[in-house]
Design goal:
The chain has six helices and seven strands, in the order βββααβαβαβαβα. It is α+β, with helices and mostly antiparallel strands. The protein has two domains: 98 residues, no CATH class; 71 residues, 2-Layer Sandwich (60s Ribosomal Protein L30, Chain: A), CATH 3.30.1330.30. A four-stranded mixed beta sheet has the order 4-7-5-6, with helices on both faces. α1 crosses α2, α2 packs antiparallel against α6 and α3 packs parallel to α4.
């Protein structure tokens, strides 16, 4: 996770990595962010700033899913995943944490059938995954655009690292 100094001297999170200036980089765990903010001056309540970082990571990840949906490169459902795999594509697969055992077996069966070696990301609930794309609850999403796949996977891993490190409800 990148931070830059604002004109008033405080550190500001830069989840997109595009703010001007030399950045300070830290592995995106809540503890690391807290340490960095303590060391370099936070300019506010520490817990609020750490929480703001978590919200920014969440927003970036969910915005990426929405962007992929608007770009038309997200399919939802096991059948649609299978259709993508039939064409030879190897999408980024995101599965809801609240997926049923039956659907999990179907997904596993489909990816084995096509000898897909990739791993899927398992996060959020079906309601949150669907709403990020402007849909009803969705348990399986397949993103099939190389650029957006990379962005979403990176953002998802940063988000997971941050939230799994910290037991708070930040967004």
């Amino acid at each position: 996770m990148r931070f830059v100094r604002a004109p008033e001297g405080t550190l500001v999170e830069d989840v997109a990595g595009r703010l001007p200036g030399r950045g300070l980089y830290v592995w995106p765990t809540a503890a690391n962010v807290e340490r960095l903010l303590k060391k370099h001056g936070s300019g506010g309540a520490l817990e609020t700033l750490v929480q703001r970082c978590g919200v920014a990571l969440s927003r970036r990840f969910l915005d990426g899913l929405g962007l992929a949906r608007r770009a038309g490169v997200v399919q939802r459902g096991v059948r649609e995943l299978e259709e993508l795999l039939q064409t030879g594509r190897r999408p980024l697969v995101i599965v809801a944490e609240d997926i049923s055992d039956n659907t999990r077996q179907k997904v596993t069966s489909v990816v084995r059938r096509y000898a897909w070696q990739g791993e899927w990301l398992e996060l959020l609930d079906s309601e949150s995954l669907g709403s990020a794309c402007g849909w009803s609850p969705s348990v399986v999403l397949a993103i099939h655009d190389a650029g957006l796949e990379h962005r979403i996977q990176t953002d998802a891993l940063r988000w997971l690292t941050f939230y799994r490190d910290r037991a708070w409800d930040g967004g």
